[in-house]
Amino acid sequence: MSNSKADTFYQKDTPFRKGLSLLRELALKSGLQEDYKWNSPVYTLGGKNIFGINAFSSHFGIWFFNGCFLKDPAKVLENAQEGKTKAMRHLKFASADEIDAKIVFSYMGEAVENQKKGMVWKPDAKKTTEIPELLEKALKADPALKDSFVKFSPYKQREFCEHIDSAKQDTTKLKRLEKIIPMIRAGVSINDKYRKS
User: Fold this and answer.
1) Which of these CATH numbers, 3.40.640.10, 3.90.1150.200, 3.40.30.10, 3.30.70.1230, describes 4-116?
2) How many helices (H) and strands (E) would you count in the chain?
3) Confidence category of residue 196, pLDDT binned at 50, 70, 90
4) Kindly report the CA angle at 55 between 15 and 194, in degrees rounded to 5?
5) What is the tens place of the pLDDT at every residue in 96-105?
6) Strands (E), the chain
């Protein structure tokens, strides 16, 4: 079943319109519900996100929410970023000609079956959060900031810590710290904008 917001998305005049239409055709054949979240069509089963379709400046494709469980015999999936999206896998295309409908549909089908089997990635249940040295110093120097930080759930505190720790260079870590301090003060976590949809 199609969705009116998704209709608008697929009717946009973009260089990838033909390829996106083909992916939609396959997605609708998979028997999933077509929803619209995060400004993109998302295909769900019983309210659970299975995969989404999106377009960017240089490519378009599918992202599988629990793609880490896909077998990927054709070796075409790409890992998503670390952190909250660790389970995601992407299937990217630069043109409609690159789409092998049989492969794409088989991956969609496997994603649906995995969801039915309850194969859903869950973040590691870490009991303690190791606070990076830079953030630790900032919290010690500013009691109000520390008060705001401890009000976040352990999961959200970990997101802040991982955001800093995942940077490879010290200058990037410092920039990330400067970016998150106002967020901590305002009570806004790293991924709040994604959780609203």
Assistant:
1) 3.90.1150.200
2) 8, 6
3) very low
4) 160
5) 999 999 999 9
6) 33-37, 40-45, 48-55, 60-64, 78-79, 89-93
Place of tokens 């520390």: 146
Render pLDDT for 62-86 as a digit per residue (tens, 0 to 9): 999 999 899 999 999 988 655 456 7
Strand partners, 33: 44
Contact between 104 and 23 (Cβ < 8 Å): yes
Contact in structure between 134 and 165 (CB atoms under 8 Å):
no
Whole-angstrom Cα distance, residue 8 to residue 73? 34
Q: Residue 32, SS3?
A: coil
Domain ranges of the chain: 4-116, 133-195
For residue 91 the two structure tokens come to: 């299937």
Residue located via tokens 């606070």: 131
User: Tokens in use for 28?
Assistant: 């609708």
